[in-house]
Amino acid sequence: MRKPNDFLEDILAEIEKGLKDDINADALADDFSMSSIHLQRLFKQTFRKPIGAYIRSRKLSSSIMDLLHSGLSVLDIALEYGFSYEQTYIISFRREFGFTPGDLRRNRQLVRTTPPLLPFGQESVYKNHFLVGNIIKEKYMDGVYFDMIKNNFNIVTPENSLKPVSLTSNRGGAYNWAYADQMVNQALENGIAVHGHVLVWHDWTPVWMTKGTKTEAEDNLKNYITDVLTHYHGRIYSWDVANEAIRDGLSAADAAGGWKKCLRTNVPWYRALGENYIETAFLTAREADPDITLYYNDYGLEDPRKAQAVWDMIYDINNRYGRTTGQERNLIEGLGMQAHYQINGFNENRVRSSLKKFSALNIELSISELDVTAAGYEEGEGKDIVMSENDAALQAMIYKRLFSFYRENAAYISRVSMWGIDDHNSWISAGTPCLFDRYLNPKQAFNAVFNTEK
Length: 454
Ligand code: XIL
Description:
By secondary structure, this protein is of the alpha/beta class. It has helices spanning 4-17, 25-31, 36-47, 51-69, 74-80, 86-97, 101-107, 143-152, 164-167, 177-189, 214-231, 252-256, 268-273, 277-288, 304-325, 348-359, 389-408, 444-450, and strands spanning 131-136, 155-158, 193-200, 238-243, 293-298, 334-337, 340-342, 364-373, 413-418.
């Protein structure tokens, strides 16, 4: 027998497929050989809203794309979504959003839509394979966005609020916990685990921390790590201890010289403490809270030389830890592969061979910041544009291949976290890299990843 969840998932998928047809509770109940009353009750019990209202909201939300991006008349759009009259559509639309379709066409304002209830993270094809995560930030903490987080993800990474400059900006031990705490607690209260990002990085770190004598800087590093881990003890169980320590564009000679020759040298912590700062950070973190899984996090690991340097670094640090402490437990227990990919030049073979290589480290591997941009590297929110058909299809294909690859290698992968829900609020929004558009409508990429056969 099928579990009710699977069945409701199928219903939700049917609704998505049927938004432009005359889909309704009666027809759905018929298709699934059950009474309409029973379906309505089950739906309401599970999702706390009537199925009819949900279908209407999804139709109206989805019609926004046609209003903004098609040349169809309002009447045509109304008919396309199964409304019998233009006026019925306009009235429902105004009731839902507070303005008419014509207003939207003129003003192109942002709209709070109703995203699909597809429980892709917790109840998806991936649920038995790895955790599925996303970021949290102010914008995502309420309304529709937080509902999406709650319904779909079982782990979140605060995008910026646990970075050093967010937690402490003044010398003298003044910490700004309040904001980050509120965010972390809200996630935990809703049953969502939190991954911590990040303790030691060249970016988002107050200048005072790395200044002064070597001893002062080292004290700052140790105190900061200890204070943060102590503060979040029992709430956050895995942390990115160090981030992006290895350089880009390594030459063959760099790579042959060992990982220490591949470190970024032009960064504050290296300048202050030299090549040992990473190991010091990990040792301090282990001592501050042994319950935590300590991660190294980096991007561009599909580059074989960078991958080799990261591999060597983790191997070397873990090996020394084992020898000096006699412990079997590794010091660096996790590797976060950021996975900020671009559709141009995406090289699946390289992604595959890096993961294969890292699997030999015998530590947890996580995809920590997945997104697939259609543009070059351009930071900033709110710059999303309408994707060309070609880009949308290519992006969907890359996401699909990545997820099927993650599934094949689920034995090594603990978590797949995406770096953003929707294109508008992405840190590289110009490249429309997410699974949902600015109206929270699922994109081709979403369907490619989450509507696969079980
Ligand atoms: C990014 C955030 O998404 C932006 O909001 C912020 O302005 C800059 O940092 N690698 C990382 C993340 O480890 O911390 C970065 O996050 C994205 C790249």
